[in-house]
Amino acid sequence: MTLDSLPSSGLPQGIHSRFVEGVNGLRMHVLEAGEPGRPMLLLLHGFPELAYSWRKVMTPLAGLGYYVVAPDQRGYGRTTGWDADFDGDLFSFRKLNLVRDALALVNALGYREVEAVIGHDFGSTVAGWAAVVRPDVFRRAVMMSASFSGAPSLPGPLPLAPSPLAERGDREIAPTAAYDIHAAMRELPRPRKHYQMYYSTRPANEDMWRAPQGLHDFLRAYYHHKSADWAGNKPFRLNAWTAEDVAQMPTYYIMDLNRTMPETVAEEMPSAAEIAACRWLTEAELAVYAAEYERNGFQGGLNWYRCGTSGIDAAELVLYSGQTLDVPSCFIAGASDWGTYQRPGSMEAMRDRACTDFRGVHLVEGAGHWVQQEQPEETVRLLTAFLEDSL
């Protein structure tokens, strides 16, 4: 099926939707703002998001004199050419191939370099790796809502969970690390599991795609639960990577053992009054997400997680052991975002070791995980300052 571009009536003024052919085997859907030929900014979304997640910041950034491009990444939205089958081509979703996607898009647009690659959530990881692998192309990097802790050390870390069980799709995955945190989670008085373990199982896609409350309401609850609108998001630094410590995080990260993600977030479904008051994600905007995920499901994005939990990523990334991110970089997240602290020590590793020209950590008040949507004006201000100061 050949998809059409997003209708302009659903996009902010100044943003256009189109397709770019031949991008590392993909027909890539992009949103763009500003005039081609100007210095380029590349914006990379996370999970479960879309290029559309950048809609509130693209026009202001273009107003600074940039050509701003946000793709639907591999596995998402209107981009096609990827395998949506759980038993399909998982290897194509590994981090270095996602970097290839970004590089191929830059080349397809006629550019040899971009002024900055800016990534949010899982897109933050891709942005960080893009700057490590090709600093000549990606001249600056902004990580948002997920810290970049750098290359693994030789001989490489154990995966979050072993691949055989993840491939079979068992809901309970037994890891093989010296300290078995996932086994320890299952033994807690309130048995728990890590969300990435759940995302790596075969049933996860169907659970969310066919959520009992409906896809629209599942996404509404999920986005609300991770936003500053949910009063329980009061993050703090965790002491260690232990079951007892990580179990202090909300259930969208450390889930109850026998619950699906739709069951988890249903408990935090906002009221009708809260939904009406949500200006950063209106019902019309949420309908765009719901329509895209209704067509595709979630498996494309979930495959990114599976490359981590299966060890595929670690096996490749260890090649860069000792390599640092040397272009100017910074980190932006919501002050109410648990993502900053979900892996103890990762933010400190980013700041002190992984990035050699790090320009600061910025935590935005009034924002949770979806910082560029919840507080777009402050996000643009911080990005503007970074771009100006790191010339």
Notes on the structure:
The protein folds into two domains: 213 residues, Alpha/Beta hydrolase fold, catalytic domain (Rossmann fold), CATH 3.40.50; 145 residues, no CATH class. The chain has 17 helices and ten strands. By secondary structure, it is of the alpha/beta class. The radius of gyration is 19 Å and the shape is globular.
Major sheet strand order: 1-2-4-3-5-6-9-10
Helical fraction: 25-40%
Query: Structural class of the helices, strands and pairings?
Result: alpha/beta
* CATH homologous superfamily designation of the largest domain: Alpha/Beta hydrolase fold, catalytic domain
Offer a quick outline of the entry.
By secondary structure, the chain is an alpha/beta fold.
Keywords:
2 domains; 17 helices; alpha/beta; two-stranded antiparallel sheet; Rossmann fold; 37% helix; 391 residues
List the helices and strands and how they pair.
Elements: E1 15-23, E2 26-33, E3 40-44, H1 55-62, E4 67-71, H2 95-108, E5 116-120, H3 122-133, E6 141-144, H4 163-168, H5 181-186, E7 192-194, H6 195-199, H7 203-209, H8 215-225, H9 243-246, E8 254-256, H10 261-266, H11 272-277, H12 283-296, H13 299-309, H14 312-317, E9 329-334, H15 346-354, E10 358-364, H16 371-374, H17 376-389
Parallel strand pairs: 3-4, 3-5, 5-6, 6-9, 9-10
Antiparallel strand pairs: 1-2, 2-4, 7-8
